Amino acid sequence: MKTATDELSTTFAALADPTRRAILERLRAGEATLGELAEPFGMSLQAVALHLKVLERSGLITRGRVAQTRPARLAPDPLDHAAQWLLRYREFWEGSFSRLDGYLEEMRKDAGPS
Amino acid sequence: MSSPRLELTAPHDEPVLIFQRAFAASAALVFQAWTEPEHLRHWRAPRGFELVTCEVDLRVGGGYRFVHRAPDGSRHAFRGQYQRIERPRLLVSTLIYEAAPATEALDEVTFEDTGGTTLVTGRTAFPTFQARELYAAGGAERGLAQCHARLDELLAASAPLPREGRRQ
């Protein structure tokens, strides 16, 4: 069974490569074909095609069905997941820091008027 | 009064986690609360969690260890070693989440006193994106779904928290 964490690991493994991150950045501006993606990176079509395959398998992008060009576009879901792993971290610190607010107030009172 | 906002940044191009939060106190006081066990015990875990171990040897080369017990009873241990201490402005330490002990992160916290208010910036640098993700999600083997279940419990347990600032 594929767990949510497996899925996240696949997403992050795909994101670990700078070229793939650059491709995702480019796709934020809109869908693009293999040729359009290869040009700015000075890479071969084959190399870019491999990166696209990794991104597609990780669910970060989808490819169009137009046989000749198969334009790539961002798939929103895995990146949303990637945002969710921060939730727990955020909860932890938000909870702790709101306690610290109250506690600093107490420390200040204990120290007497400054 | 609503709490000051916690700013979190997790860049796509670098495996770091950055938080920023203002506190209505001097840097000297915030630094003290941040580094002394008798003070840490009062805040360094959200309600519902318990800081069951809190050891601090605040000198360069000295170690620290925190163990949190989560509302579901699971324990999460963190340890590291202090590398730079510039009271009350800077604290640099290593950070190891004991569930993934092979992964060492570098933790840098700055305390910027802006006249009665202190802006705290924490920057944790991980060796890989995966290490960052696993750290923030709180352990690999548990899976995110379970983390979220725990989060729901936590939210239920801390109902009096102001609604604002929870989830944005």
Question: Can you put this structure into words, describing what you see?
Answer:
The complex is a heterodimer of chains A (114) and B (168). Chain A has helices spanning 4-15, 18-28, 34-41, 45-57, 76-110; strands at residues 61-63, 72-74. In chain A, 26% of the residues are buried. Chain A is mostly helical and 114 residues long. The mean pLDDT of chain A is 78. Chain B is built from 4 helices and 8 strands. Chain B has a single domain, classed as Alpha-D-Glucose-1,6-Bisphosphate, Chain A, domain 4 (2-Layer Sandwich). In chain B, 22% of the residues lie in helices and 38% in strands. Chain B has 168 residues and is an alpha+beta fold. Chains A and B meet through helix 1, helix 2 and helix 5 of A and strand 2, helix 1, helix 3 and helix 4 of B.
Order of helices and strands of chain A: HHHHEEH
Provide the β-strand percentage band of chain A.
5-15%
Number of strand segments of chain A: 2
- Rg of chain B (CA only): 16 Å
Q: Give the rounded overall mean pLDDT of chain A.
A: 78
User: How many individual β-strands of chain B?
Assistant: 8
Oligomer: heterodimer
Summarize the helix and strand pattern of chain B as letters.
Answer: EEHHEEEEEEHH
- Text of the CATH class of chain B: Alpha Beta
The CATH architecture of chain B is 2-Layer Sandwich
Can you give the helix content of chain B as a percent range?
Answer: 10-25%
Number of helices of chain A: 5
The CATH topology of chain A? Arc Repressor Mutant, subunit A
* CATH topology (level 3) name of chain B: Alpha-D-Glucose-1,6-Bisphosphate, Chain A, domain 4
Q: How would you sum up the major sheet of chain B?
A: 8 strands, antiparallel
As residue ranges, the low-confidence spans of chain A are none
Q: Segments of chain B where pLDDT lies below 50 for 5+ residues?
A: 139-168
What is the helix tally of chain B? 4
| Structural class determined from secondary elements of chain A | mainly alpha
Mean pLDDT of chain B: 81
Distance between the termini of chain A: 60 Å
